[in-house]
Design brief:
The radius of gyration is 19 Å and the shape is elongated. The longest helix has 42 residues, at 132-173. It has helices at residues 15-21, 25-31, 45-61, 73-86, 94-104, 119-125, 132-173, 182-220, 225-244. It has one domain. The protein is an all-alpha fold. 62% of the residues lie in helices and 0% in strands. It has nine helices and no strands. The two termini are 15 Å apart.
Length: 264
């Protein structure tokens, strides 16, 4: 399932736009070698100044909701916490990591990300491990790390959704709000809700990728460690469910299809 969670209406991306947006990608590659909090790239001139401007222009050019409003502390933190989930889980996936990083800055559309569930399995088997158990342990650790970060993201998202509700009530009720602030306000609500949708889509993709990898590992290298990996994936799925069913502000309208986390 692939959607354009920031767009008011769905539409196809023109290849020319994607190609032109890839131009700064090589600069991004040079700037994301080291990591900071939550595994994100350390702050640089690119990530703090250039990428946000390029992302705003690219998103607006694709017809997606884009707001010039400054981010609240919770909105900024939610974007930081989302980074883990929208990046590829696959080990050694440098190119896809850069694509996802550019999608996170909105320079590229989210549809540019890989949707091949076999990526994780290829990455897991493409790395030298001491034993077969090490591969299962890596998968267990990845799934558990995802699970532990969902709760803080959900709490953060709930605060953002609550404040967006206040924001829109104020826009509708207060005569002191200038008309030119109404569209950016709605765009910010769409951005925030779209980010939650995107995280749920990528969580679903991660769960399906882990299950694909587990099934293929069991066929190639059966191990008792598969039980621990299966339990970790089940726990991740259980934790993701409440996040992806939490009440939102219906910024996309009643017809919007919400992401559904993997169910068998």
């Amino acid at each position: 399932m692939t959607t354009a969670p920031f767009a008011r209406a769905s539409g196809r991306c023109r290849p020319g736009k994607i190609a032109s947006a890839l131009l700064p990608a090589w600069l991004a590659c040079a700037c994301t070698a080291t990591t900071g909090d939550l595994g994100r790239p350390r702050p640089t001139v690119w990530s703090q100044l250039l990428a946000p401007e390029a992302g705003f222009a690219a998103a607006a050019g694709r017809g997606e909701a884009a707001s010039r409003f400054r981010l609240t502390d919770d909105e900024e933190q939610m974007r930081d916490r989302a980074w883990r989930f929208v990046m590829p889980a696959s080990p050694n996936s440098v190119f896809q990591g850069e694509v996802s990083n550019l999608a996170h800055t909105r320079i590229l559309p989210v549809a540019a990300q890989s949707t091949d569930v076999s990526d994780y399995f290829r990455g897991l088997t493409g790395i030298a491990f001491a034993s077969q158990a090490s591969r299962y342990n890596r998968m267990t650790e990845d799934a558990n790390a995802d699970r532990l970060l969902i709760g803080p993201f959900r709490a953060n998202a709930m605060r953002v959704v609550s404040m967006d509700r206040v924001r829109m009530r104020t826009v509708q009720a207060s005569p002191d709000i200038a008309p030119e602030k109404q569209d950016p306000a709605l765009a910010r609500v769409i951005e925030n809700e779209g980010l939650i949708f995107w995280v749920c889509e990528r969580l679903d993709f991660r769960i399906r990728s882990y299950r694909h990898a587990l099934a293929n590992l069991v066929v190639e290298m059966p191990s008792r460690e598969a039980v621990r990996a299966e339990r970790a994936i089940m726990a991740l799925e259980a934790e993701a469910g409440p996040l992806c069913r939490m009440p939102l502000n219906d910024a996309f309208g009643e017809g919007a299809k919400r992401p559904v986390v993997y169910k068998g």
